[in-house]
Specification:
The protein is of the alpha/beta class. The chain is built from 13 helices and 15 strands. α4 packs parallel to α5.
Length: 397
């Protein structure tokens, strides 16, 4: 077969929780897996054999590529409210600086073995880069009206203009709500109506800080103060005596594939309620960003016990030191090591592809797919599965 590539390694993780040993992959020149075969008894010099492990390409389910120029501008450990203030007041920069940072961040993700990204866009700054990238982007045009019902239609129309530019750049995407604390019931309705006949993923930030929950539980807290300090009316706000995710579920379409992002403060009852609400709920964890902003992580044990479909995101360079799914996996392993390596690979690959609606094309090593292939290696005596600091990723195809 012309242009055929044959690859194997010590172990191959198929991305769906299974380990393949003593097998090799046959890929065509376009990176499509044409066959998976047992290793021959006799040495075959046409098969490239690597020390380490092969995995599918990684799926980054949550990023803000357009904020890449803000790397290092916002201090760590401020908490979400102060972080938002910094982003709002400091995101403007010269166009050349913004574009240079976006293209560098895209290349960083590519080089780190990321093949697809669920990317948040409030404006069109990242569209040119995404249209030229070899990375597959699903763009979430994000809307928020700070729960001001009277501004809902104006807000929708404003961001709809951003959405319309996706077609110009031949990008896939949809319209999504920002977060429970920032979207009115009316704006939720407009978003739901627009997406009603579309097969898409709805992404929403969820439960990153206690102030968000206090708003919905008690109608008090730092999020209320944040709104008031910015001159945003909270007169019509009412608590619901439940956590923030319940307000989201009250107002979102339970028939849509839904991606809850961050989920730092989710409790057992929040997770079970969401899974009961919608059997196509996915959970994006961005551990580096959680540590950067709030210096805390979700309790992954709760999600594991509930059988939740976990995925991994990097968030933006505003709240992260790098854009690497491997580094996110290392953090999870370091702080909550009960999560098995094969499960982390599934979070990073197949689950992520499912969350973005890309599972028929990538996310797992299967005949007919074009998942991208990564090689994970360890420079020390330890296996790559130990996720030590020295483990590296190399994009093979």
């Amino acid at each position: 077969m012309k242009g055929t590539l044959k690859l194997t390694a010590d172990r191959i993780y198929n991305g769906k929780g299974e380990v393949m040993e003593d097998q090799f992959l046959v890929l065509d020149a376009d990176g499509i897996i044409k066959d998976i075969q047992p290793l021959p008894v006799e040495t075959d010099n046409t098969i490239q054999n690597f020390d380490g492990i092969l995995t599918p390409g990684f799926i980054n389910t949550h990023c803000h590529l357009e904020l890449s120029h803000m790397k290092g501008l916002v201090p760590t450990g401020t908490g979400l409210v102060e972080f938002i203030k910094e982003v709002v007041t400091r995101r403007n920069a010269e166009e050349e600086i913004i574009q240079d940072a976006i293209f560098k961040a895209d290349r960083e993700m590519h080089d780190n073995g990321i093949v697809a990204v669920g990317d948040i866009s409030n404006i069109t700054d990242s569209f040119e880069c995404k249209s030229r990238s070899s990375v597959k982007y699903i763009t979430f045009v994000e809307m928020f009206d700070f729960r001001q019902e009277e501004d809902a239609e104006k807000t929708f129309n404003q961001y709809f203009k951003v959405y319309q530019q996706l077609e110009k750049y031949r990008l896939e995407g949809t319209i999504v709500p920002h977060a429970p604390y920032s979207v009115s019931r009316k704006l939720f309705q407009l978003i739901n109506e627009f997406n009603k006949e579309i097969d898409c993923t709805i992404s929403i930030h969820n439960m990153e800080t206690q102030g968000e929950n206090d708003m919905f539980l008690y109608n008090t807290g730092e999020m209320i103060s944040f709104f008031e300090n910015f001159g945003i009316s909270t007169h019509e706000f009412h608590g619901i005596s439940k956590s923030a995710i319940h307000y989201a579920m009250q107002n979102m379409d339970s028939n849509k594939r839904t991606l809850f992002v961050h989920n730092t403060l989710c409790k057992k009852e929040d997770i079970s309620a969401a899974i009961e609400w919608n059997d196509r709920v996915y959970w994006a964890s961005c551990p580096s960003a959680n540590l950067y902003i709030e210096n805390r992580l979700p309790n992954y044990r709760l999600f594991a016990d509930a059988g939740a479909k976990m995925t991994i995101g990097t968030d933006s360079l505003t709240s992260n030191w790098s854009l690497s799914i491997l580094e996110e996996m290392k953090i999870i392993h370091r702080f909550q090591s009960f999560v098995k390596f094969e499960d982390l690979i599934q979070w990073a690959c197949y689950n992520g592809a499912c969350a973005l609606g890309l599972e028929s094309k990538m996310g797992s090593i299967e005949i007919g797919k074009k998942p991208g292939i990564n090689l994970l290696t360890s420079q020390s005596a330890g296996k790559p599965e130990h996720l030590g600091a020295d483990v590296q990723v190399k994009k093979m195809i």
